[in-house]
Design a protein that fits this description.
Blueprint lengths: L1 E6 L2 E6 L10 E3 L5 E4 L4 E3 L2 E3 L9 E4 L7 E6 L2 E2 L12 E3 L11 E3 L8 E7 L5 E10 L6 E8 L2 E11 L4 E6 L4 E2 L6 E4 L5 E9 L6 E8 L4 E8 L14 H39 L2 H25 L16
Parallel strand pairs: 4-13
Antiparallel strand pairs: 1-2, 3-6, 5-11, 7-8, 7-12, 8-9, 10-11, 12-13, 14-15, 15-19, 16-17, 16-20, 18-19, 20-21
GO cellular component, one term: external side of plasma membrane
Protein name: Ig-like domain-containing protein
Subcellular location: Membrane
Amino acid sequence: LNKRTRNGGCYQNEERDTFPNKRVSVLVGSTDPVRGIVSGDVILPCFLRPTTSAVEESVEWQRTDLEPKEVHLYRDRGDDNVLQNPSYSGRTSLFSEELKNGNVSLKLTNLKPSDAGNYTCYLPTLDNQKTTIELLVGGAAPRPWVSIVGTKDKRVVLKCEAEGLVYKPELVLLNSNETILPADEPTESSMNSDGLYTVTSYFTVQKTATNLFICRVQQSEIKHMRETHIHVPDKMFHEEAEEYPLNWKVGIGFLGAVVGAVVGAVVGAVVVFLCMWRKTTRKHHPEEKEINDGYADNRIALLENRNLENSNVPNGVGVSQSGERDC
């Protein structure tokens, strides 16, 4: 800007730099969520662009949903975490060597599920600029497991299962070429009281050149994947895998015949023994037969005598037996 001033009746131009050529840096973060795993480390990005040193600036990382909200504070060329939320104690840091390059990113270690949320990168000494980054924290679940649960029509049924997952997972089975195989039914999914997922799925597979299959679980939200391999023996794909093999059938038939023969022999032996026992008893006690025969003869004679006595009784008169009386 030129300004004319009067000096001794003359005018001269006086230059003033009313709008100095000063570069203004902007705080830049991440528009996409940052993903981390429980017990792992993560970096929340935050930079000054164009590059400007942040060594002399104040840097505050905050979570406005917490009390106190301070996650990490940098002031007067050093960390100042007196007001830091206790849940982050000893787990946060800046990259001190990168501050001169405008890098004010936060490193967060030993992640917990409760660390998930929105973080604000705030520079109060630079026009109160701020940017927000979302952090997603997923469970580092154990590997899924896969097992053989049966056979069906020359094929094998595999069970693939995973548990302890924070974000809703996808469970798939692949062959050795990493081709996804179809499940028998939709994946079974449940959530426990801690909000962790368990997923189970069944797959009926055919024999392949390698018989190698891969059970894989993925948590897309945090880009996390784990897998387990299984090799199915060739014999599991035999035609009669789910039935008794032929040699078993022959063995069962032979066993039945043997059992039948043994039972028949035992019954026959018992019958022979009883017959022999009766013959032996009669041989050693012949008087029993004679007594029985004499008893029968006496009984017949007694009956004949009674009939004769009764024949002499007039008609209409009853014959009473001992202890009985006619009325």
